[in-house]
Amino acid sequence: MLFQVTPVTFNGKEVIILDQTKLPTEEVYLKIDNLEDLWEAIVQLRVRGAPAIGIAAGFGAALGANQIEAVDYTDFSEQFFKVTSYLATSRPTAVNLFWALNRMEKLVKENQSASVSDLKALIEKEAHDILQDDIKICKQLGENGLTLFEDGMTILTHCNAGVLATSEYGTALSPIYLGQERGIHLKVYADETRPLLQGSRLTSWELSKAGIDVTLITDNMAAMVMGQGKIDAVIVGCDRVAANGDVANKIGTYGVAILAKEHNIPFYVSCPTSTIDVETATGAEIPIEERGAEEIICGFGNQTAPSKVKTYNPAFDVTPNHLITAIITEKGVLKGNYQEEIAKLF
Fold first, then answer.
1. Cβ of 115: how many Cβ atoms within 10 Å?
2. Based on the domain organization, do 162 and 117 belong to the same domain?
3. Which residues of this protein are catalytic (predicted)?
4. What is the residue range of 74's domain?
């Protein structure tokens, strides 16, 4: 890949993350050696994006495992499951978090005869495997997504689903990066993505660093640029897909999907199959994280609303499946009856 940045790594003793709350003005890497600080980093969006959260959770499980002092499987597993349960309380919506932790728990349950030292080694290897798997999956998402685009098209995206949200390439931005490598030039309009501005702080930062033609707009400009004929397609990532194809993504995605439908613009969702939650029947059952009032009233140091005003701050919304033109996965592009197609995947 032409543009390289590493959001999450692990050296056996520390989980190292790029603090995304400091971007775009500072590139600060945090070395985290305890579970409490990693939990805080996930909650405070120092690491964010569904796949990256899953990777961080895997490394967090390995970090916690390496710090357990136990002599037998029973004692170790009891303490380890407390580690995974604690990390699972960090954020409720992105299913990759739970997918990664379940993968770690399954590994421990399947190796009851292993020594404690061997268990720790297996857990650390599994965490690195999650990272390597994500790299391969994201590239395949790019391969599959690129079949939907042509050279010279202009794409609108919401929030950040690029390198910063994954391990490499990204989900929604993977076709754009892969296209760049192959001489297929795709222009991007990036929604600002209020209230935390992941589009302006993160998406525009990484695309600019990569040399991609990117134009930043505020969220309430999307309808106008679509009406002016500037947008050929919309592509977003997501944090959870229900069994019927309803999609939870950053707040504002639902509105963008409605606008795309009104303007006859295809609306694509790109995600690994680990983001699909077949245990959740519809989007109505997806837990939606609500965040603090300060993100709206005083998000970046300047107060922009009365201190005591009531606020409602859901971090995500749900886009119903009928507004989605296609769901891009590493196993193929789903179109039509998502209920049936998702069931076939699993």
1. 13
2. no
3. 239
4. 8-138
